[in-house]
Design a protein that fits this description.
Residues 33-97 form the Tc1-like transposase DDE domain. With 144 residues, this protein is mainly alpha-helical. Helices cover 53% and strands 3% of the residues. Helix 2 (54-62) links the parallel strand 1 (42-43) and strand 2 (66-67). It is globular.
């Protein structure tokens, strides 16, 4: 976001299901963040199967969280992919690359904190162009 970021939250054990997504991501993090931002908050995730369950949609609806709808199979429209790419390059370029899950989580967390705030702000500001592409893709109407 502009002028800040949250901590990086790593969910590393087992398969992510819709219920885990609700319990470990939506309720403890997204709901609180939405409460801080207010009514103009629009949540953006991707089209991962676990994000698209009826239980997840019911949870979002019950919490009053509006989701920005993206076309299927369109990671290039999702600006977080640029952030993940930068984060991955930082981790790969470390003097001592991670050798197991624990050192990978540690490296990701450290490198997340080091990412330049300007990179995050540039990605946020690119949303105007990305939403325009999405609107065009959906025939001229906003997909939410």
């Amino acid at each position: 976001m502009i002028n800040g970021r949250t901590r990086l939250h790593v969910v590393a054990n087992g398969t992510m299901t819709g219920q885990r997504y609700i319990d470990e991501v939506l309720l403890p993090h997204v709901r609180l963040f939405r409460g801080t931002v207010g009514d103009k908050f629009v949540f953006m995730d991707d089209n991962a199967t676990c994000h698209r369950t009826l239980a997840v949609q019911d949870c979002l609806d019950s919490e009053g969280i509006q989701r920005l709808v993206w076309p299927a199979r369109s990671p290039d429209l999702n600006p977080i992919e640029n952030v993940w790419g930068a984060l991955g390059r930082q981790v790969a370029g470390r003097n001592y690359p991670p050798t197991n899950k624990n050192t990978l989580i540690h490296a990701l967390t450290e490198e997340w904190d080091k990412l330049p705030q300007q990179l995050l702000e540039n990605v946020v500001q690119s949303m105007v162009r990305r939403v325009e592409c999405c609107i065009t893709f959906h025939g001229g109407h906003i997909p939410y």
